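The data layer described in this paper is built around a simple, fixed record for each protein. Such a record has a labelled line for the sequence and another for the backbone structure tokens. For reference, a complete record is included directly beneath this paragraph.
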Amino acid sequence: MAKKDSFIEERRRKLDLLILFLITSLIISSVILYNKMNEAEDLSKDLTAKQEKREKIISENKKITEKQIENDNLVGNHDVSVTSEDFNHLYFDWNSWEMYSKNMKEIREKYPNLERSKYVDISGMDVGTGRSPESVHKVQIYNTSKQGEIAEIINQNRRYDDRVTERLIFKVSEYDKGRYDIKEFKVYNRAL
């Protein structure tokens, strides 16, 4: 009988330990779940706040853009700014020789007077062989004292497989009587 009592006692201890382990596991799991729920709630609040902030920034940017267009119209530079932005996108942004040639063709179609320009080559004939670099640009625009004219400082980066080149361009553009023209185009090269 002593053996049976000791067996029952040992079984009871094992059962008590199992119950204690399960209760401890349940408490720890509850704490972890509670913390995860709080963390998820905090992340949700942060996300909502950031979305609201983003929407506010977009709204403010839209107001600034509208004000800039209003100012450009007031000083007579809206048309030249929009046209120059289109030209710059076509002239400076490309990632293959095919795209470069296509962009030059589009420039010739949109701005035929630039084919005779002494400042820019839009013939599309200066394509290279092999893989082309990827070209991107950034622009800073300045109003000049003349209505319908802007000055720009353009930073063009060309990324080749083995190097990057940077060109700074000073460009003066004019839009008069429906015609876009480039009055000055100075290039400063720098290899990085």
Q: What stands out?
A: The first strand starts at residue 134 and ends at 143. Residues 2-75 form the longest helix (74 residues). DSSP finds three helices and four strands in the chain.
